[in-house]
Automatic annotation (TrEMBL):
It holds the Pfam family adh_short. This is NAD(P)-binding protein. The keyword Oxidoreductase applies. One of its GO terms (molecular function) is oxidoreductase activity. Keywords: Oxidoreductase. It comes from the Eukaryota. The keyword Chaperone does not apply. PANTHER family: ALCOHOL DEHYDROGENASE-LIKE C-TERMINAL DOMAIN-CONTAINING PROTEIN (PTHR47534:SF3), YALI0E05731P (PTHR47534).
C-alpha cells in the first residue's frame, strides 16, 4: 500500500517544472474526474485543461470553472461541448483540441456508468455504457497519441477496473455483447474493464514512450454508478437506494482522498519513472517492467500487475480486441 501521507507529500511537491502543462479531462464534469481536476488545479501550477462535457452539464460546469479560477488564476480551463456517447462527437472534440495544441501531457478518462437494466443503443448503433466505458476512451487515446508523444512525460490515466481482470472476463466472440443473455451488470462491467486493459496493454507495447495507467478507484460515492438505473425498475431501484447506497457511503473514500490519490496517479514518477520524483517502491507494469508500459493500480495506488491473467488475455484476446476496436472506431479516426 502507498501510504496516504506519502501521496500527500508527493502531491505537495508538484510544481511548474514537473506538473502537466496541458491536460484533457473526458468525464471531468462530475465524479472522480471532477475531484481529480479540482486537486490538480489546486496545486497552483500554470496549466491549461480541456474539460469535455455534454450540453446538459455546461451550466454547472461553467460555475465549476469559475470556482477553479478563484483557486488558481494561473490555470486555464477550457470548456469543450461534446456528447461523447456519440463517437462522432468525440471525434469533433479531439479535432478541436488538435487544432489548438502541439502537445498534451495528460489524458484523464472517467466516462461511463454501471450497466444496470437492458441494452440501450445510441443513434450510432452501439450500446451506450459500452461506448462511454470503452470505445470513447480508446477513441480519445488514438486521436491524441501523436500529441501525447510530443510531451516529455506523457501519461494516459483511465479509471475503471484495472487489476480486477479475470481470464474469463472477455467474450471474444461477442465483444459488443449483442447476443441474447450476454449483456448485464455481472457480465458487462468486468468485460469493459478487461477490454480496456487488453487494448491499453497493446497500445503501451507500441508506444513505450507513453505511460498508461488503468486504475480501479474502489468505492467513491460520486452517484455516477447509478446513472444506468431508473426508478421504473422499482424493485432493484429501491433495493439499491434503500440498502446499498447508505452502505457504499459508509465505506467509500472521501472526495478529498479520492482526488489526491488520482492526482498521484496523474503525476508521480512511481509509474513509469517520469513525473514528480518518487523514492518509494516503483510500480510494475503488466510486462513486469518499471520504465513505461501499462500500469494497473488499485484505489490505494498500489501497482497490481495481474500479469498471469493479463498474459492469458494477451494471448487469447489481444489481436481480436485490437482489430475489432479499430474496425468500430475507423469511421471516427
Amino acid at each position: 500500500m502507498v501510504a496516504y501521507k506519502d501521496i500527500q507529500a508527493s502531491n505537495a511537491s508538484i510544481n511548474d517544472a514537473n506538473a502537466p502543462r496541458v491536460a484533457v479531462f473526458v468525464g471531468g464534469t462530475s465524479g472522480i474526474g471532477q475531484l481529480t481536476l479540482r486537486a490538480l488545479v489546486a496545486t497552483g501550477t500554470s496549466l491549461r485543461i480541456y474539460l469535455i462535457g455534454r450540453p446538459s452539464s455546461e451550466e454547472r460546469s461553467r460555475r465549476f470553472i469559475q470556482e477553479l479560477q478563484t483557486v488558481n488564476a494561473s490555470a486555464e480551463v477550457i470548456w469543450v461541448e461534446a456528447d461523447v456517447s456519440l463517437l462522432a462527437e468525440g471525434k469533433k472534440a479531439c479535432e478541436h483540441i488538435k487544432s489548438r495544441e502541439s502537445r498534451i501531457d495528460l489524458l484523464f478518462l472517467t466516462t461511463g456508468y454501471s450497466p444496470f437494466g437492458v441494452r440501450q443503443e445510441t443513434s450510432e448503433g452501439l450500446e451506450t455504457s459500452l461506448v462511454l466505458s470503452y470505445y470513447t476512451r480508446m477513441l480519445f487515446i488514438l486521436h491524441l497519441l501523436p500529441l501525447l508523444r510530443k510531451s516529455e512525460a506523457p501519461r494516459v490515466v483511465s479509471v475503471l477496473g484495472g487489476g480486477m481482470e479475470r481470464t474469463s472476463s472477455i467474450n471474444v466472440d461477442d465483444i459488443d455483447l449483442e447476443k441474447p443473455g450476454s449483456f448485464g451488470i455481472t457480465t458487462a462491467q468486468p468485460h469493459y474493464a478487461a477490454l480496456q486493459t487488453v487494448f491499453l496493454d497493446k497500445a503501451a507495447s507500441e508506444h513505450p514512450d507513453v505511460t498508461f495507467i488503468h486504475a480501479w478507484p474502489g468505492m467513491v460515492n460520486t452517484g455516477n454508478v447509478w446513472r444506468g438505473l431508473h426508478a421504473s425498475q422499482s424493485i432493484l431501484y429501491w433495493f439499491i437506494w434503500g440498502l446499498l447506497e447508505p452502505l457504499i457511503r459508509l465505506i467509500s473514500s472521501t472526495d478529498d482522498v479520492a482526488g489526491q490519490r488520482n492526482l498521484f496517479l496523474c503525476t508521480s514518477a512511481a509509474f513509469g519513472g517520469r513525473g514528480v520524483p518518487w523514492t518509494g517502491q516503483a510500480g510494475t507494469s503488466t510486462l513486469r517492467t518499471r520504465d513505461g508500459g501499462l500500469f494497473l493500480a488499485n484505489y490505494k495506488c498500489d501497482s497490481t500487475p495481474n500479469d498471469k491473467v493479463v498474459h492469458v488475455l494477451r494471448e487469447k484476446a489481444s489481436a481480436k480486441v485490437w482489430e475489432h476496436t479499430h474496425e468500430v472506431l475507423r469511421p471516427y479516426l
